[in-house]
Amino acid sequence: MEMVIPQHVAIILDGNGRWAKSKGMPRNYGHSKGAKNLEVICEDAYNMGIKYLTVYLFSTENWKRSQEEVAGLMKLFRSYTKTCIKTAQKNNMKVRLLGDPTGLEPDLQESLAKLVESSKNNTGLNFQIAINYGSRDEIVRAIRHLAQDCVEGSVKPQDITEEMFSGYLDTREVPDPDLLIRTSGEQRLSNYLMWQLAYSEFYFTEVPWPAFTKDDLWKAIEKYNGRERRFGGRLEE
Ligand code: IPE
Ligand code: IPE
Ligand code: MG
């Protein structure tokens, strides 16, 4: 049987902390291994034929973690972003950001902007990084922007459609995910892409993110292939 490769895969990279703990290591060790694994999975996903990969790196709720962990994560994002500027060129990846960058330190905002700018003409994997991202925050920011356009008169409330509203979200230009994967056993969305995941298939695995491999990704795709995709009662053509 011919495998259908989902065009867009979204991942909640979870379980870094528990994975590290199981090895008697600090949580930030898990984050650092998780970031390394992300580079590997990006290449694997593209080689499998996935066109869009969207990953959840840091949620608007993750600021509530200990100061030590948050500082460690920000340090890691700084080095990850620098490395990603190089790997995006090497692997022809086009990187987009989801979330509110204004909540991040100015130097991190700058390197993230540089990552997006330097990769914008690449034609390989479309790679979306959700950082300081929350679906509710994204929707509220979109509504503010849309309300402003209404006040200024460029949009009439009666002309607002689902499609138009999507254009105000951070994911404008990106098709909705076909498949959502969450690692490490939890089965919840944690404020991720709530608008965009309306019709996506969900796949949960016990494997923690730092241990997640190409084979695990393949298993998710196989499971996805075994499902009859329905869109409001209609089978996918
Ligand atoms: C996911 O791993 C990475 C981030 C949320 C930054 P966790 O840090 O949530 O790891 P667990 O879920 O506590 O094991
Ligand atoms: C979701 O994971 C956020 C990211 C993976 C960045 P969490 O581990 O933070 O989610 P909860 O707190 O368990 O719901
Ligand atoms: Mg977690």
Report what the structure shows.
This protein is of the alpha/beta class and 237 residues long. It contains 7 helices and 8 strands, in the order βααβαβαβααββαββ. A 6-stranded parallel β-sheet has the order 3-4-2-1-5-6, with helices on both faces. Helix 1 packs across helix 2, helix 2 runs parallel beside helix 3 and helix 3 runs parallel beside helix 4. The protein is globular and about 60 Å long. One 3-methylbut-3-enyl trihydrogen diphosphate binds next to helix 1.
Q: Please give the number of β-strands.
A: 8
Which descriptor suits the 3D outline?
Answer: globular
Major β-sheet profile: 6 strands, parallel
Unreliable stretches, pLDDT < 50, 5 or more residues? none
The first-to-last residue Cα distance is 17 Å
**Which strand order spans the largest sheet, edge to edge or round the barrel?**
3-4-2-1-5-6
Q: Total helix count?
A: 7
One letter per element, helices H and strands E, the order comes to EHHEHEHEHHEEHEE
Average pLDDT, to the nearest integer? 96
Report helical residue fraction: 40-55%
Ligands: 3-methylbut-3-enyl trihydrogen diphosphate, magnesium ion
> Structural class per helix/strand content?
alpha/beta
What percentage of amino acids are in beta strands?
15-25%
Rg: 18 Å
